[in-house]
Specification:
Length: 137
């Protein structure tokens, strides 16, 4: 009986380690460019996809470029619909395996999920939800 319990315990430990190492294997490092930006408020949704024209506005993928560096720093350059913003800071991975960007200037944190090679940021302020999708290049 002790051999069976030891075998089960060893197998369970191996599975747990495999899951932990797989979760740690997510590689956020790289350059991400704009895929789309979507704004939702009071039942109205507007979405702009990089390279496509919507309401007479065309946005390029270079309108938003995020660099995630292997030294746990990041920087972003944004020139989106007349609003320019550059920021930088440090990054970490939270318990859910999501990317957390902490801005140096303000200490604000932004959480992004990685779906394949696509980072998705979503934030709601004053009843408006903005979702930014960036594609790894």
């Amino acid at each position: 009986m002790k051999k069976i319990i030891a075998a089960i315990t060893s197998a369970l430990a191996a599975v747990i380690l495999a899951v932990v190492f797989a979760a740690c294997g997510t590689n956020y490092v790289g350059t991400y460019k704009l895929g789309s930006v979507k704004m939702e408020s009071t039942g109205m949704t507007v979405e702009y996809v990089a390279g496509q024209t919507n309401n007479g506005i065309t946005i390029t993928e270079d309108a938003c470029v995020l660099e995630v560096n292997d030294d746990n720093t990041w920087s972003i350059t944004m020139n989106l619909m007349g609003a320019s913003n550059d920021a930088e800071g440090t990054w970490s991975i939270n318990d859910d395996g999501n990317l957390v960007l902490t801005e140096d200037a303000t200490g604000d944190e932004i959480v992004a999920t990685l779906d394949g090679s696509t980072l998705v940021f979503s934030e709601t302020q004053s009843g408006m939800t903005m979702t930014l999708t960036l594609n790894k290049k």
